[in-house]
Amino acid sequence: MEYIAAALPAKKTIALIAHDNKKPDLLSWVAKHKALLEHHHLCGTGTTGGKVATALGLQVKQFLSGPLGGDQQIGSKIAEGKIDCLIFFWDPFTQMPHDPDVKALLRLAAVWNIPIACNSASADLIISSPLFNSPLERMIPNYDSYKNKREQL
User: Fold this and answer.
1) pLDDT mean for each 10 residues of the chain (153 residues)
2) CA distance 1 to 143
3) Calpha distance 37→9 (Å, rounded)
4) Interatomic CA distance for residues 24 and 107, integer angstroms
5) Residues marked as catalytic
6) What is the pTM of this model?
């Protein structure tokens, strides 16, 4: 696989997602870091995004609820290069009916090399990094030849 450099901007678009049992943890984490997060663009799945916006007064673009396709909508935005960071507090102890969607979302975040946090410790490491509010160069797969072939069809 060939890779090319791509930039994450200083003002990032951050996706916020939490499974039901983890929503209180995410709300607590966002409240703790509200002053930093309000300088970025926030989005989230429907229920999580709505809870963050209502409880903390932050602007959050809301997609559908995760089980109704919100995870896939966010995954699509990652593939389009429109989401720069994924904060996803997932519940490792509860089986989810939309588990294939969750796995696909995590896979896309890994493929497109964006930062991913799955709990408060990893989210704290991301947000406390000096790179959080700075541009960041990352390597992503170069699909130009694939895209060119498809356009020729």
Assistant:
1) 92 97 97 98 97 97 94 96 97 84 94 97 97 96 76 67
2) 9
3) 14
4) 25
5) 71
6) 0.92
- Helix or strand or coil: residue 95? coil
Domain range 9-152, its CATH number among 3.90.550.10, 3.40.50.1380, 3.40.50.12780, 3.40.440.10: 3.40.50.1380
Full DSSP string of 97-151:
TTHHHHHHHHHHHHHTT--EE-SHHHHHHHHHSTTTTS-EEEEEE--HHHHHHHH
Reduced to 3 states (helix: H, G, I; strand: E, B; else coil), residue 9 is: coil
Q: Are strands 13-18 and 85-89 parallel, antiparallel or unpaired?
A: parallel
Annotated binding-site ranges for substrate: 19, 23, 45-48, 65-66, 98
Identity of the amino acid at 145? S
Q: Which residues are annotated as a binding site?
A: 19, 23, 45-48, 65-66, 98
Cα 90 from chain centre: 12
- In the block, which residue shows the tokens 């493929």? 111
